[in-house]
Amino acid sequence: VYDGRDVDDFFSHGTHVSGLIAAQGANGIGVTGLAPRGVEILPINVFYKENPDDIAVVSDSRTLIKALAYVLEHGNVDV
């Protein structure tokens, strides 16, 4: 899906949500996710900055469709 734009998780939202879902419990760190066993995360970033100086991030239907196609090509994935 990468098309030359910055692929950073600008606000760490996806990282945060992934942790809430799949954090492994009983490991001494102190957090257990909602589904800590048997979950694999396929990270997809559909947001980008139109201008590197912008604070806001955006997406568009073309990028969303490309991301969905990418996910569907990678096997048994629940979206």
Give a description of the structure.
It contains two helices and no strands. With 79 residues, the chain is mainly alpha-helical. It is flat and about 40 Å long. The mean pLDDT is 81.
Topology:
Elements: H1 13-22, H2 61-73
Q: How are helices and strands ordered from N to C?
A: HH
Main pleated-sheet profile: none
Quote the beta fraction.
Answer: under 5%
Number of beta strands = 0
Termini gap: 16 Å
Average of the residue pLDDT scores: 81
Helix count, per DSSP?
2
Instruction: Classify the helix fraction into a percent range.
Output: 25-40%
Helix/strand structural class: mainly alpha
**Unreliable parts:** none
Using the CA coordinates, give the radius of gyration.
Answer: 15 Å
Net shape: flat
Quick structural summary:
The protein has 79 residues and is mainly α. Helices cover 29% and strands 0% of the residues.
